[in-house]
Amino acid sequence: MPKRKGRPVVHAATVLALLAGSAYFTYELRKDDQAKVPAAQTVTDNALQNSGKATGKQTWERLNDPARSVLRDAKGAVIATFTDGARTATLKGSSRTFTEPANTSTKVVTDDWVRLMPEPWTKGAQNQQWFKDWFKQYYGSQEDDVFAIAFQYVQGSPVKKDSAGVPYEGDAVFGPYKADGVDRLEQNDFYDYLGIPYTFRNGTTMEPRTERYRALDCSGFMRMVWGYRSRYPLMATDTLGDGLPRSANGMARSKVGVDIIKLQGPSPWYTRPKNIDTLQPGDLLFFKMDHRTADHIDHVGLYLGLDTEGHKVFVSSRKEQNGPTIGDKGGVSRIDGNGFYAELFRSAKRL
């Protein structure tokens, strides 16, 4: 993600002081203690809200825009949502609270659990054995989902290493400083964070760069969460291999997944979507932020849903915060209203 024109420079010493301060995040799983936190916010998709009816049993429903299958409980409430052509599923479960008090007062209380299915959804897939087996394993499961994994890289997250000593989770930075000591280097992928060579499915091997150890830029963060951790296929670059491309622009324009909000309007700035109510927790959000990147989309984040104030929020890795955040530095992490990111939001994809 490029440096924004016209934004004040934060000196390295200031950044280090901030990092050394009260830097922590809270990820709480609430089960028997629901009364102590605000209620989970509901989705704003009118089709989901208005079509459910109490039937006394679980029922499947087909909805359009996008084409998807919805599983409802006996009272008509949504249990799970599956979108045609996408592997992402949202399952209702225990309510959790995601916060980052060192950088924002924003609090996300959600009962949505975002997981990857082994195959893209198709109409009638609920009758196939692969889905029955997957749903039995993951509905009600408290195994880390995409949201839990994403928050394992925000400021103050504890480092965890595998048996080979490779740090697969823990506080990530956006990237090291450039020679000028002001701007930060981009193009920091998950293998840079890990510090190990990585061979992609097409046989391409990418080598980590020592100075970028524990660094993830915006798209590298998404590739860590969805690819290395959740096992979504990854391309080596924007052109080599198959799966999720390397850059935000490559992801936005890729044929993988389903375009929930399509890129519209004239380049290079395109236009802000007029309606964003079709978004679902777990969607990739794309932004056009800098004139220096020509017609490229230059930032990507993960949509979390509504915060406790009813705003649509996301998590992404940014230069200003120097890593993954739902914070306010450089712009509040909301895509509704008229804030910095809201104004520059352009499209969305469901993997």
Automatic annotation (TrEMBL):
Classification via SUPFAM superfamilies: Cysteine proteinases (SSF54001)
Pfam families referenced in this protein's UniProt entry, alphabetically: NLPC_P60
The keyword Transcription is annotated on this UniProt entry: no
GO biological process, one term: proteolysis
NlpC/P60 domain boundaries: 178-351
Domain of life per record: Bacteria
Hydrolase as UniProt keyword: yes
Entry keyword set: Hydrolase, Protease, Thiol protease
GO molecular function terms noted in the UniProt entry: cysteine-type peptidase activity
Alphabetized InterPro entries for the sequence: NLP_P60_dom, Papain-like_cys_pep_sf
Family assignment from sequence similarity: Belongs to the peptidase C40 family.
Protein name: NlpC/P60 domain-containing protein
Organism of derivation: Streptomyces albiflavescens
Lineage per the UniProt record: Bacteria, Bacillati, Actinomycetota, Actinomycetes, Kitasatosporales
